[in-house]
Amino acid sequence: MKKKYVSSVQEAFDKYLAEGRCCYVERIMPTPEEAIHLIKNSGGIPVLAHLMLYKKLDSSQKEALVRELKEAGLIGIETYYNTYTGRTRIRCRTCKTVGTH
What we know:
Elements: H1 9-17, H2 32-41, E1 47-48, H3 59-71, E2 76-77, H4 86-96
Parallel strand pairs: 1-2
């Protein structure tokens, strides 16, 4: 914008950065399992955030997701979030213990 190639951020995206444009770079999205592996290999701790905000998954699907991710090396689940009630926190902690028996 300083050099007047475009007059706004939106124009920059429309003209150069949108899919199919000359400066577009495709995102490479790792699978959750790959992300866990990358995090652990970098010295991090893989934690699943906002589980209860996954509105398209019912309780059993959330438990299955947690079970899969734990098998891949997931270490924690966020149980405190500003919109979570006490009951929601309990449900998160319950999911956290899925597959530990």
